[in-house]
């Protein structure tokens, strides 16, 4: 029996997570769910808390306590797991990032490019505060971080605090489901070997019941299967590229390999339906209207359009594997420790790990092939410069981060862009003031 | 249903292995056991085959075919697993190694020092021949190597052939049982983190139900628990050393840290009861007398004095984990691939791995602490020079190997020692002729 | 007294080189200059040979033999230095590269992007042939390579032959002269610490009489000093970028950091004066008209517009340092050997080396800072994939090379571009036929 | 014109150093020599100061000021070079180390084994105090360290202070002279490529006028040339070992490869003439009697028996190369920075460096061959554990250091030995109190 604190408990994703916990309650016997949010999000988090209580009741789990908090201390104290799924500045800040990118003729994606950069600057100080509270009040707890840019945020905490942290993303699990479907196989029969960074991860091998079916999977992809996420446009990969690579890019690689097409799509969407954040705001408004219904006692269908498929699946799997010391293989974001050669030991990478009560232990992978190494190095350098900027409020690192990212990479406008980022996000960037 | 070839099937250990397979037959559904030995070992291997058939019958497994071979081809063809547990030159050669070491005032241990060196020179050519047959006749098979010096032999095959090979040793499993006993816990509740080389491996962490109990285990060891194998003298470790190290050496470390005491014990034993090989010869003679009894249909008690406790446990676990693609964590000898930083990628190391149908995937460990690194590097260098000598018949590498090993390390007598090794083992060293 | 072979002796640069040798004849006592060119370049190489003889005579060095060859063997046999400054397909092929790049909306620069890629594919087979002749006929000779893309070509020979090779570029020496001028100091008082790749090299430290003046130099650059070469547009670097970087980029970095502006300039030049190659063709025609004048017995002024300033300075310095075993510090392209951490040992890098009779010994540099590492890794990966493509005729590597280069990086058109490159250059790409 | 501070100015070596400075005064124009010693060494340092003034006067250099100090501040303030050649506890402490080693049946050598360990514990705190003074009072100064164990002491300062430090030893220069003599060549025609650790360094290549003569040199050594120092017994290396190694060990390697013979020689010497320290005490007494002679105005012949040949040669060469920013190649002890792969970047190594006003820049060497790597790693680990013990007063590191050193390596007596070291040296080990 253990306590879970959910930082950003008022998120529209929370019911997804709660459903996962309820379904696997035997394996993850939670005693308390402590939802934390900011005071300005009081209404939302209380809607979520009430819905959670109804969901628990429907499943005969009234004994699970649901508490609501607007400061960290009480929520974190004594927790076994601290889930971080917060959004500093909320969707309005994300929309501002997206619009700023487009204004400069750049991709305005949430987790990379200038959007990911701005979000990291806003988010890292808050996560560091959570980590310091965990160090003091729940030193054995694991922080399980979903907050994007998940790789950067996880690395900042991993390097600058003693709190234990593991980053989670739904890209690997989504690819797993999709590839199993392509192979017309059960998910548990199919295993994928991932190595890379968050939102820049490759599948290097696919096995089905232990046999290597990587080439077969690539041919299926060459045959028109697009392998995307519902928030990323399904531009197919050129077959010659996939065959030459001998591996499977993740959907987010499109931002780097097909930048122009992705930008055109973003521009068009922004003009017609609004940017992704603007669309999500509408979805969220609808979701909270549903959540507030006192008769609703289950996760509503509509949440599946939100984009976070399988989040609860991986979160509950991870909690279960740690709690039960199970030695399960999972794909998470953690300290590299030499697993991917050529990246620093203290870099956070996304790769297959064995999970037990001590945390995540990455399997040795070796070096990335040349066609993947350079881009990965460049993005990792961007991430590390961004972390330096975010943790120390260092403008030089911030400028170099922007220049290093290939989605920004326009030296001529980098300074102006940085000034705009710092000005627009000024309320959330105490480290630069 | 699959076929297992056992190279060195006439070994006195084979009944141990057979018992393991029989007990876990549901998980390892063997269709054929192909026992291979040299013509001069015909009597022994036929005794073993007959005993195996009786053991199978007793357990209602008459459908498992037991075949006997004196050449490799038929045995290896179509096998899924090729177990190598052979002894080139048999115990007489081992006894000669031991006597040679003592004659030079050196330890004459079978797996390190001059004994391990000589055994590697004799064994590697035969294992390379097995590997070439596997490449040609059973390219998907795994060689599971128990043959000592297991780390060196496994590395030679791993680097100089395309055959898949995993090395096994009963030291990690024996330490696991002993430490669990010390902690008065069930083995499955206790997990050990190993990293090092075969017969030079440390336990870096002990957990019990997921909690770190390394310091507690060290204190138990300081309190007189000796943690040894039944073929290594139980000299206790000085408490201050264990506490400073913060880790647990394996029993074989005594040869390096307590060389003088171990040598004195060897000298005394050689004078009274004979060297270890000479003692084992007597045990073996008794064992084969038992095995030949047509009424014996189970593994006799006396085998437990032979020294190979838990061999069958780890062998069957490994076969099971590969066959069932189970993702189980085990401690085996395999290609380092960056797991232990500072050792070459193609060095074979002994460490915790995730085992599935693709083989062994070591968990990233990071660098060894300074107090362990230097000795490990030195032994690995000895191993690599020995492999060069054994594969290419290169005398310069052979001499440097002897000089590099701290148990030999006597430059003055190294050349004479090398000449003696090459002379005594001349029948088994075609590569030097 | 030694022999120098000049492969591509009919180059318009040759008189520059000859002038250098004549001026420092005491230090580089040449007995023979063997000029080699293709049969179709017979007229040019004979013009150069005649001019060289007149230049030697004017300086009282008639004893130096000047020979002309149309096959490699006689020229290379017994040479101490083999200078490679050839241009496969001549300027017409370069012009085609430039036009092809522009047709795809990409930079068509000679040494990077698609132009550098195509030039590498054409050039590497010829250089490998030179290397094989050197291995056989002059195994102690040094190949001194000026042929662009110099880093890629040098690495191909370094990795795929046993011939000794050092690559030279005039970028470091030009930066040295310019920075000394900016500091109003003599060149010999100013020292620069370079580390990077050919045409992607940074100055990490500037010292003047031993004192660090890096920050002062950066401020001078921020104040409007443009630091360029006469074939690269002088776009100033943003001061905030230079200060954040704390280092000085080379002129070629503009292609990567200011891609759009450089492309616009190329497009405009191509429309008005022709591409760079087309302009150079005119310059060359004028130069050869001058060279052919039987009264000319010195290097004409007009050669300085050709772009190869200081080539002869570094070439003669290098020959002198090797010949005299002088231990001189120079910036050359050679095997990394760990000097720049994070790049492979067998990668060719451009950095400060100690030069003696054994060749070039790079000074240990350590890792590149994050803001430089990623881009460098990406370009090195591009280079290595290009080498695989060029040496083995491997289309998959060729496609991945194009996709990896950030100046190409357009996945959508990469295949079509590759097909165009292979088609246009078909006469010079036997490895792909 | 610059000031040199000499810490340990009362050393009997000082006249050697002074002679070197006087001979090369044009290149090293010293304005002041500030001799520092402890109060108890007042008599000696004043004898040295007076002798130095007479030597200067004889050479017409009365303008060079010679000052004597018993605290660091005034001596270090404004110095350009701080030479450290001190001996904490003086020869009596060294003699105690030697006797202690012999008492335990171990080598009692001054710079390695238990003697080197004890000397490092005594010396590092004093050197750290010097370094802190340099940081504060002469931040641009170079510390030039001769104090043994020079590699360990230099690394301690290099890692734990910001002061610039270069370690010097006379082993490389002595080997250079000896090998040139063997080759019957001038020293300046012969170049040696060193890589290793202080007192554990190999010559990997010998060139004569640029041509590789390594094999020839090895054959000369095989032919009876012993290559030793006048304080190390000349046991010849077995020819087969030298040929297999393909490199030349330094004289100190004998302690590791020929331990027994060296120990026997030490035991015998201790019984007949006294330990090395005891012999040196007599030599020193005689030397100071000579030095005190008011008519002596040059370095006396007898100093050459003291063992420090060529110290002044390398010291003055180094001062000259830094002062004149000369880019000279020298063999010194400095931060590895990747030069020897497999050793940490911050390890101090002994290898060929380019010396200029910025300090020592090691040439990239690559990995050590297997026959050298393991021993080097082990000694470096010993050194690093010793540094941890010395800097932090950490007993666990101290015990592990002793156990790690192959000359001690006797686990059974390690604790007692450590207690004896700490007890005997108690006055000089404030960090352990």
UniProtKB/TrEMBL annotation, chains A, B, C, D:
Keywords for this protein: Cobalt, Glycosidase, Hydrolase, Iron, Manganese, Metal-binding, NAD, Nickel
Source organism (scientific name): Paramixta manurensis
Protein's name according to its UniProt entry: 6-phospho-beta-glucosidase
Site (Increases basicity of active site Tyr): 110
Domain of life from the UniProt record: Bacteria
Positions that bind Mn(2+): 169, 199
UniProt feature coiled coil, ranges: none
Binding site for substrate: 94, 148
Molecular function GO terms recorded: hydrolase activity, hydrolyzing O-glycosyl compounds; metal ion binding; oxidoreductase activity, acting on the CH-OH group of donors, NAD or NADP as acceptor
BP term (GO), one: carbohydrate metabolic process
Cofactor note: Binds 1 NAD(+) per subunit.
UniProt family annotation: Belongs to the glycosyl hydrolase 4 family.
Glycosyl hydrolase family 4 C-terminal domain segment(s): 194-408
Statement: the UniProt record of this protein carries the keyword Metal-binding: yes
């Amino acid at each position: 029996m253990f306590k879970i604190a959910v930082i950003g408990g008022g998120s529209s994703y929370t019911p997804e997570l709660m459903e996962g916990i309820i379904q696997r309650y035997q394996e993850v016997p939670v005693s308390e769910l402590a939802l934390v949010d900011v005071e300005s999000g009081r209404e939302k988090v209380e809607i979520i808390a009430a819905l959670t209580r109804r969901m628990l009741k429907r499943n005969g789990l009234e004994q699970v306590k649901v508490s609501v908090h607007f400061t960290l201390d009480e929520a974190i104290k004594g927790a076994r797991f601290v889930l971080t799924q917060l959004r500093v500045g909320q969707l309005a800040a994300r929309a501002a990032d997206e619009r700023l990118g487009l204004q400069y003729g750049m991709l305005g994606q949430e987790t990379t490019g200038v959007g990911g950069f701005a979000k990291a600057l806003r988010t890292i100080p808050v996560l560091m505060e959570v980590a310091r509270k965990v160090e003091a009040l729940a030193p054995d707890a694991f922080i399980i971080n979903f907050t994007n840019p998940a790789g950067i945020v996880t690395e900042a905490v991993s390097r600058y605090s003693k709190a234990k942290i593991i980053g989670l993303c739904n890209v690997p699990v989504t690819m797993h489901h999709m590839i199993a479907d392509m192979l017309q196989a059960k998910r548990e029969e199919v295993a994928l070997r991932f190595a890379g960074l968050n939102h820049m991860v490759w599948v290097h091998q696919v096995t089905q019941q232990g046999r290597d079916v990587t080439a077969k999977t690539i041919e299926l992809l060459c045959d028109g299967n697009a392998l995307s996420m519902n928030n990323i446009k399904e531009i197919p990969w050129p077959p010659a590229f996939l065959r030459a690579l001998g591996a499977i890019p993740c959907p987010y690689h499109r931002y780097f390999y097909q930048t122009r097409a992705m930008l055109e799509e973003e521009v068009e969407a922004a003009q017609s339906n609004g940017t992704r954040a603007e669309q999500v705001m509408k979805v969220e408004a609808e979701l909270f209207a549903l959540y507030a219904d006192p008769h609703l006692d289950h996760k509503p269908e509509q949440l599946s359009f939100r984009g976070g498929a399988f989040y609860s699946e991986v979160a509950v799997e991870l909690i279960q594997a740690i709690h039960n010391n199970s030695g399960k293989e999972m794909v998470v974001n953690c300290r590299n420790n030499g697993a991917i050669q050529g990246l620093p030991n203290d870099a956070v990478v996304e790769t297959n790990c064995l999970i037990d009560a001590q945390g995540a232990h990455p399997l040795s992978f070796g070096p990335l092939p040349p066609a993947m190494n350079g881009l990965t190095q460049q993005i990792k350098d961007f991430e590390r410069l961004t972390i330096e900027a975010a943790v120390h409020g260092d403008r030089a690192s911030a400028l170099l981060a922007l220049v290093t990212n290939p989605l920004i990479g326009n030296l001529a406008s980098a300074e102006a862009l940085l000034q705009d980022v710092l000005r627009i996000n000024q309320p959330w960037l105490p480290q630069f003031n």
